[in-house]
Structures are given as C-alpha cells and as structure tokens.
Amino acid sequence: MDKQHIFRKFKIRKLRPTAVREMVMEYLLERDTAVSLKELEEVFYWADRSTLYRTLKAFEEKKAIHSIDDGSGVIKYAVCADNCTCEPHHLHAHFHCIKCKLTYCLNEIPVPEVQLPPGYKVTYINYVVKGICPKCGGGE
Description:
By secondary structure, the chain is α+β, with helices and mostly antiparallel strands.
C-alpha cells in the first residue's frame, strides 16, 4: 500500500497521523470487505482495544470510514470514498453473505431515496442486502 495514499486520506479528512492510525487505515484499504473491531484486535493483537476503538471512532467522526450494521450483531467498518460526506445522497448498499458472513460495500448501488411524511428527518440509513456472495457460489 502506498503510504502517500494514506497520508492524503488523512489530510483530506483532517486526521492527525499516528502509527496505529496508519496501520489500521492501511489494513482497511487493503480489504474488499468490511472489518469488525474484533478482527482488528486479532490482527493488531499488540494494540490496546480502546486504542483501536478510538481510532475507528476518530475515522468515523471525520468520515474517513463508515459503520455498517449488517444484522450479524457486530458493527463493521469500511473506508469511505474521498468525496463522501456520509449524507444520504452519498450512501450505498451493502451485501452480507449468509454463508461466509462477510459484508461488502456495493458502492455502485446508491441507497434509494426515501420520501418521509412531513415532520420526519432522515439521520441514518442502513441498506443491507443478504444472500450468497460470488465467492460462496451465489452466481450459480
């Protein structure tokens, strides 16, 4: 992974680089699936859980990553596009494989616009499709 890419992401999101933040961002960027805090704890076993959690929360607050509630009971995280503001018009669908339990960002599929009755305001949308991914034979 190109370190310049990571530093550019930090600069865009106004994140102060630290060794742990750099390693976590590199790990997230290398994945094609969303990652849980537990997975990060297993990979970065030497790091304190609270440090990893604070890293994820800082990334999420600055919109460098987004969280995904895929219905598995575990929140997962994935990197946002550089131009993403996590507003409803930037949101995309996610796919959770019921076989391998991995969750994928479907960046090319926008979340449908929801027309709410007067007085309601959207603050969060979670659009998760469940099924079997291509790696598990979903295309057969």
